[in-house]
UniProtKB/TrEMBL annotation:
A single Gene Ontology CC term: side of membrane
Gene3D superfamilies: 1.20.58.1040
Organism: Arabidopsis thaliana
Keyword Glycoprotein among UniProt keywords: yes
Protein's name according to its UniProt entry: PDCB4
Topology of this chain in the membrane: Lipid-anchor; GPI-anchor
Boundaries of every X8 domain copy: 20-102
Entries under InterPro entries matching the protein: X8 (IPR012946), X8_dom_prot (IPR044788)
Length: 116
């Protein structure tokens, strides 16, 4: 029983957050690709959207754009970066879908591995 309370608290921290994310808008794939190129060339962790990366699927420009600009924004927001990318992106309270799914699934798998 003493393990369940801390476990529930940890899970709730990862399942609810009012943190700001940065997501690409629906639009022209060339515009989204420019946002990806900028983000990846300026500090975003884009290994996630490489063919062997955790966020490669779905393999769409929009999905990859979400992951790239959000990575950039999370790393650079504290130093004044904005979530605009020449109008290609905007702030959101919802995380990029594939990153969120991978993170939750991976986290829950790790917790189950520790306790069960």
């Amino acid at each position: 029983m003493s393990v369940l309370l801390p476990l529930c608290l940890i899970i709730s921290m990862f399942t609810y957050s009012n943190a700001a994310y940065c997501l690409c808008k629906e639009g022209n794939e060339q515009v989204l690709q420019k946002a990806i190129d900028y983000a990846c060339g300026n500090g975003a962790d884009c290994t996630q959207i490489q063919p062997t990366g955790a966020c490669y699927q779905p393999n769409t420009v929009k999905n990859h754009c979400d992951v790239a600009v959000n990575s950039y924004y999370q790393k650079k927001a504290s130093s004044g970066a904005t979530c605009d990318f020449n109008g290609a992106a905007s702030p959101s309270t919802t995380p990029p879908s594939s990153t969120h799914l991978y993170t939750k699934t991976h986290f829950i798998f790790q917790i189950k591995s520790l306790f069960f």
